[in-house]
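Priority: low. Protein: Endonuclease YncB, thermonuclease family. Input follows.
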Amino acid sequence: MILGLALVIAITDGDTIKVLDASNVQHKVRLASIDAPERKQPYGTKSKQELASLVGKRRVTLDCPSVDRYKRLICTVWSGGEDVNRLMVDRGAAWVYRQYYKGTDYYEAEKAAQSQQRGLWKTSEYQAMPPWEWRKAKRQK
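Result:
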């Protein structure tokens, strides 16, 4: 399903936004194939700011093949002809979500971000822990 053109009205975190579609219906959108640091996780705020710099209050195109268990649309977000999901990985603001991504392009972007120490890969202070591991550790406490 392609939702098409939508206006970004809120950034929830580094991989979730709220949009208004052409009929002014609000949708919660989870960026497909990436996983950004959680809000309370190191680099979570910076990841959210990075996504805001890419799509905040802009019109984007959404390609949404599915809906998750929280009823969020799972989408590739396009802005200015750019794949925003890939840009988040390339800028070091998110990981490739290994459980869901089946391609190779995002992995190449992640490897480049790591080797060039962009974003969350820049400093050891963030102890770059993938969000899926961070969430698991939090549940076990």
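DSSP finds four helices and eight strands in the chain. The helical segments are 44-55, 84-90, 105-115, 131-140.
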